[in-house]
Amino acid sequence: MSSQGHIVVLGGGESGYGAALLAKRKGYPVFLSDGGTLKEKYKQRLREEEIDFEEGGHTEAKILQASLVIKSPGIPEKAAIVKSIRQNNIPLVSEVEWASRFCKGKMVAITGSNGKTTTTMLTYHILKNAELDVAMVGNIGDSFAASVAEKDHAYYVLEVSSFQLDDITSFKPHIAVLTNITPDHLDRYDYKMENYARSKFAIARYQDAGDYFIYNQDDPETLHYLEEHKPQSRMLPLSIEKTLEEGAFQNDQNIIQIQLKNQESMSINELALQGKHNAYNSMAAGLAGKLLGIRKEVIRESLAGFESIEHRLEPVLQVYGIDFINDSKATNVNSTWYALESMQKPTIWIVGGVDKGNDYSQLHKLVKEKVKAIVCLGVDNAKLHAEFEEMVPFMIDAADMDEAVRISYKLGAKNDAVLLSPACASFDLFENYEDRGRQFKAAVRRL
Fold first, then answer.
1. pLDDT tens profile 74-88
2. What is the distance between the alpha carbons of residues 92 and 167, in angstroms, rounded to a whole number?
3. Are both 329 and 199 inside the same structural domain?
4. 2 falls within a domain
5. What is the CATH number of the domain that holds 68?
6. What's the pTM?
7. What is residue 33's three-state secondary structure?
């Protein structure tokens, strides 16, 4: 594409602004269009960069003049403007694809239904401790495009969602990590797991034999789709259930072993983050670090010294012997499975929100074993009641977070735990999962 190619960016959030900024810095005429209301901070930045924009609707005639459209991940394929762009055969890509075209640094990209944020932060932590020139971007931190626009780093650690991978045409990370695949966002994928899995596996679609694909050998959904979506890159598995000849695994003494051909194996016996799910996350990050040639001591120290991330099994307070735990980032059933599986005390479980086609059956065994009461926090809790009401002595609806926390506290006793792990999106009562988690912590502190 020549520098005269006209770029249109759809969506004016973090990724949209970043895409527009990168286009501007690379000398392209660029126009940003948002169907809703732009946040004031983005409008201010766009004005400062002298980027033309509109909000409150899309001027189709102007958009259809584009030689390339960059779409923000939150805009679905069924949106009218996207359909018009497709019908006019205008190339359409994601912000991640756009940024990768100008990125000269080495990319480590991480996706999956669960664990991708923790794995991204762990990997970044390792590279940062190795004193490498690294940026953490994507779903966490700055947008990839904005970072590339400001300074091209030697390394990028990206958290990428299936939505961002839907519109790639050449995105090629040196190391791709797929943490797992469980039903999530199925409403966006015509309620078909095959469609969702295809999006996840796209992370390795353009890799070649010089790249690496790290995946979870213990995840049945990943294995199920792997044959059809097998990448050209070097495949390295993770497991806590079996010994591997190459990859990363946990032995009988719960020590992680990382083994690569023609390299000395390394062991990791101390992790800051506990639980099965974090063993996988730590293995993936450690293996990525080893592939990048980072010293064993740095990897070990990084994984042992990492501090827990906010909203993911985050201890809040103990109030009269009751532990309050914030797992607001658990926006799907599998995330909540890991949270409940890690609980060692009788648990009052706060659950609910926007159901994305959830199948709660995998939680039945854990609820029967570990949960003494359920507090429902959502606008419509009928499905949760139908699923769990017969399994617990108490199941109560709460109108807001304050009420949910107060009810949970009254239902609890010394040596119990209250776990906020919603298994649902947050948009019925909260701005996002961060807002939900912060409200939970504030309500606990008011007890």
1. 888 889 999 999 999
2. 7
3. no
4. no
5. 3.40.50.720
6. 0.75
7. strand
